[in-house]
């Protein structure tokens, strides 16, 4: 199974406990594959670096490197989708379409509204855990 993690899930999984953290642990155990694009990875890095100053005990570099090495990278060049109320979220839909991934995990209200778009399910972290793990 392939999934895409919205930035809020990725960041919450690193810095906090709860469903997002459980999702990252399941990924580490190879329960599923995470798909990312260069735009998604850039956002992960930007947000994580910004938060890392508030959590100096967490070294974000190895985590980002782990993602860069072990996630499935997808080229979204030439795919331009404008369906989200927040245009910054379109990159997750573009990645899903480019990779034929049918699951995005997100707590973002704008993305959650798009569940069903092109056959893509947008699930909250708890929903994903309950349904698949």
Q: Order of strands across the biggest sheet?
A: 3-2-1-4-5
Cα Rg: 14 Å
What is the overall number of helices?
Answer: 7
Number of domains: 1
Strand element count: 5
Let me know the CATH homologous superfamily: 5'-nuclease
Please state the structural category. alpha/beta
Strand content: 5-15%
Architecture, according to CATH?
A: 3-Layer(aba) Sandwich
Percent in helix: 40-55%
Question: Which sheet architecture does the biggest sheet show?
Answer: 5 strands, parallel
CATH class reads Alpha Beta
Order of helices and strands: EHHEHHEHEHEH
CATH topology: Rossmann fold
Report the uncertain regions.
none
- General form: globular
Query: Ends: how far apart?
Result: 11 Å
Average residue pLDDT: 94
How does the SSE layout of this entry go?
Layout: E1 2-5, H1 7-15, H2 19-28, E2 33-36, H3 38-52, H4 60-70, E3 72-73, H5 90-99, E4 103-105, H6 109-112, E5 121-123, H7 125-132
Parallel strand pairs: 1-2, 1-4, 2-3, 4-5
Helix pairs in contact: 1-2, 2-7, 3-4
């Amino acid at each position: 199974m392939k999934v895409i993690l919205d930035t809020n899930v990725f960041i919450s999984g690193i810095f906090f406990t709860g469903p997002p953290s459980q999702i990252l642990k399941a990924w580490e155990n190879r329960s599923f594959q995470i798909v990312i694009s260069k735009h998604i990875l850039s956002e992960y890095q930007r947000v994580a670096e910004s938060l890392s100053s508030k959590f100096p005990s967490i070294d974000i570099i190895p985590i980002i490197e782990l993602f860069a090495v072990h996630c499935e990278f997808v080229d979204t060049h030439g795919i331009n989708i404008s369906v989200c109320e927040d245009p910054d979220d379109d990159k997750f839909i573009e990645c899903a379409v480019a990779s034929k991934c049918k699951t995005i995990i997100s707590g973002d209200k704008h993305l959650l509204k798009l569940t069903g778009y092109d056959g893509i399910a947008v699930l909250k972290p708890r929903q994903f855990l309950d349904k698949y793990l």
